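Need residues for this backbone.
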């Protein structure tokens, strides 16, 4: 049974909905010990589950995982031993790791578990029909998944079932979500398709891509009109965080309430002048390329070719004037967080 449609409903699962029996006697192979991998592995282990971390022989993470008290083996050995294989290596290397280390070691009734749907949704990994395929995706970077767990707090997450061969995929997925701390905060059901497409669209059109373009064009507009780069940086980049924090805490309304009436009136009248109906049409184009697989094909080909355009674009972004201005300004002001200040205290004047 393959589920592939829109699935977000208002059901939110909490600790009391999860049955730890569905996972507690199983062995979980966590492949990769990066952002998500280290958090899943340690949280699962602290929740009493048998964990084995799968890493390449010369991986620098090998010692880190061992000194965190975890068993480590090669990805193939870990997958062979496990009932649940949690694939937490980078998305671009997952197909290769799957083909070489996981697929030969999958048994009927095992589970393939992901934290993002890209490779399943775009058919880069095609699992056999006799395994469960699940996704438990914390909506947060791994270091927070771990820190929240240690502080008895939760991290919101998504749950999706792509393939339910055993009939227990949902119960087991929920138990996995509980074991990494997600049901403490709340777990929302979605599908691989919905998670993958909304994630890609969001990061391209609005978050990573949209916001950086908006910032760069605002900066260039001011600097080209003769204003100082430093003022331009403060106005369009530094203040972005303050505005976003207000929205994060209390929605758009919370932000509008906190700014001046002048800012509110000007923002309400001019925002749509800048991000106008063309931007909307462009967003629809971006979404279509996500939906029809064009973006996925392009990204896969880019990786196969050794990332030529990606490398070029990265260099251009790094060399944008706003980066040099920002680096200098951030160095001049005392707004780093407490940790950084502590580190720098020894070399700085204390008054
Ligand atoms: P990462 O880049 O932080 O870590 C990858 C790990 O895999 C490292 O330990 C690396 O050494 C190891 N690795 C790399 N190549 C390998 C190979 N060929 N064989 C074995 N190990 C290898 O990755 P991440 O950001 O934690 O992403 C893992 C998954 O989690 C991805 O599917 C990603 O989309 C998803 N995800 C990430 C985040 C996040 O905040 N980083 C959030 C939600 C979901
Ligand atoms: Mg197995």
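Answer:
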């Amino acid at each position: 049974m393959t589920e592939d449609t829109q699935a977000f409903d208002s059901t939110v699962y909490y600790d009391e909905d999860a049955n730890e029996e569905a996972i507690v006697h199983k062995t979980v192979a966590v492949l990769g010990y990066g952002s998500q991998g280290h958090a899943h592995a340690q949280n699962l282990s602290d929740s009493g589950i048998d964990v084995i971390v799968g890493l390449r022989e010369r991986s620098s993470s090998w010692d880190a995982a061992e000194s965190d008290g975890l068993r480590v083996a090669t990805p193939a050995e870990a997958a062979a031993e496990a009932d649940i294989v949690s694939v937490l290596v980078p998305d671009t290397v997952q197909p290769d790791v799957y083909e070489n280390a996981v697929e030969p070691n999958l048994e009927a009734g095992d589970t393939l578990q992901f934290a993002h749907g890209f490779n399943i949704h775009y058919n880069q990994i095609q699992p056999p029909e006799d395994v469960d395929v699940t996704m438990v995706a914390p909506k947060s970077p791994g270091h927070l998944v771990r820190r929240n767990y240690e502080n008895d707090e939760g991290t919101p997450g998504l749950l999706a079932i792509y393939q339910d061969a055993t009939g227990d995929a949902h119960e087991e997925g929920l138990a996995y979500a509980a074991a990494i701390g997600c049901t403490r905060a709340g777990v929302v059901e979605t599908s691989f398709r919905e998670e993958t497409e909304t994630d890609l669209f969001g990061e391209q059109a609005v978050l990573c891509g949209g916001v950086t373009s908006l910032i760069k064009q605002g900066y260039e507009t001011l600097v080209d009109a003769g204003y100082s780069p430093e003022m331009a940086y403060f106005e369009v980049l530094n203040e972005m965080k303050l505005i976003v924090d207000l929205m994060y805490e209390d929605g758009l309304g919370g932000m509008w309430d906190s700014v001046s009436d002048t800012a509110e009136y000007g923002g309400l009248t001019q925002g749509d002048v800048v991000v106008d109906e063309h931007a909307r049409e462009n967003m629809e184009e971006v979404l279509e390329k996500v939906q029809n697989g064009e973006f996925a094909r392009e990204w896969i080909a880019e990786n196969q070719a050794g990332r030529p355009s990606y490398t070029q674009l990265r260099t251009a972004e790094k060399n944008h004037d706003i980066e040099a201005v920002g680096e200098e300004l951030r160095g001049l002001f005392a707004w780093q967080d407490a940790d950084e200040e502590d580190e720098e205290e020894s070399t700085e004047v204390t008054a």
